[in-house]
Inverse folding.
């Protein structure tokens, strides 16, 4: 279950989402061996470096993904938060031995398109001659209805605005930053090499196992399930667009992080087996391994933290 920042204080907030290897079948488990972690300084390439986006990044998985990317890649990172940008920046950089100039925190609320547009406009000015290499789009909230009688119109609408329209609008404004067929990709001589990055530009949306229709054996969580099933449809549709515009240079995938020890899942901690309740820092590393490892043939699909496909 992913976490990201939702738009209402009454909702549970969620902070939560190597294209080099080719998988032989839908159920193949990908190679997710961890690269050796090492601090990176600001790269000094002969060409501008590509960049990374994590949105939102103020807590939970988004926060730890941003820290992991700063620690294990050499690229500049743009992170977002709805409020308290300075506080978010301090949390991200706390204890990291990295060049702080690699990090920029922008204001963005996925329920307010004007803030998404403004953030994209800023990135267009900051990165005029390069492309977006990796994006984690991970907004989400959860209202766990146990029966249809518990469905609340306002809360269900809020769920779809955050979990589904949020990624939809992020794609509208940030997919144009991904490379196209004609884009010259940066080579190892342009960027310091690292095993932590996928070889193709990747737009990753945070989905959830409960968004799978085929895997739904328990029911419940009606608005959340439906909103995440819609995310899986977005993953497929956006990837078709990227096939047409970028061929193998850019892909879209969905990610399921498992049950993560964040505010969203707090009421389920006691009922979740200890071995299936994950720390967000650990999950951040696993998700980056999956993004790097699923291969171009894994595009347009949803993958869990183990690198195994979740059916739509």
């Amino acid at each position: 279950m992913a976490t990201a920042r939702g738009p209402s204080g009454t909702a549970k907030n969620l902070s939560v989402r190597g294209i080099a290897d080719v998988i032989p079948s839908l159920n193949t488990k990908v190679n997710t061996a961890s690269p050796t972690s090492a601090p990176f300084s600001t790269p000094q390439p002969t060409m501008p470096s590509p960049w990374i986006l994590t949105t939102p990044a103020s807590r939970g998985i988004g926060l730890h993904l941003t820290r992991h990317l700063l620690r294990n890649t050499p690229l500049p990172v743009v992170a977002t938060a709805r409020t308290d940008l300075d506080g978010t920046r301090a949390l991200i950089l706390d204890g990291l031995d990295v060049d702080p100039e690699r990090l920029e925190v922008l204001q963005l609320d996925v329920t307010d398109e004007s803030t998404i547009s403004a953030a994209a406009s800023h990135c267009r000015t900051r990165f005029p001659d390069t492309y977006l290499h990796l994006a984690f789009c991970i907004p989400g909230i959860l209202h766990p209805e146990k029966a249809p009688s518990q469905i609340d119109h306002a809360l269900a609408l809020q769920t779809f605005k955050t979990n589904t329209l949020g990624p939809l609008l992020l794609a509208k404004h940030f997919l144009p930053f991904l490379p196209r067929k004609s884009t010259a990709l940066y080579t190892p001589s342009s960027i310091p090499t690292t095993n932590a990055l996928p070889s193709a530009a990747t737009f990753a949306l945070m989905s959830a196992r409960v968004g799978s229709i085929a895997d739904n054996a328990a029911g419940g969580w009606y608005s959340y399930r439906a909103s995440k099933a819609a995310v899986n449809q977005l993953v497929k549709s956006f990837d078709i667009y990227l096939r047409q515009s970028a061929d193998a240079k850019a892909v879209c995938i969905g990610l399921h992080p498992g049950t993560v020890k964040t505010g969203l899942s707090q009421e389920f901690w006691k009922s979740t087996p200890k071995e299936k309740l994950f720390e967000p820092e650990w999950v951040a590393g696993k998700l980056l391994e999956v993004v790097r490892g699923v291969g171009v043939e894994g595009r347009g699909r949803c993958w869990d933290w183990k690198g195994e496909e979740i059916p739509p």
About this structure: Confidence is low (pLDDT under 50) at residues 1-41. The radius of gyration is 18 Å. Residues 222-246 form the longest helix (25 residues). DSSP finds six helices and twelve strands in the chain.
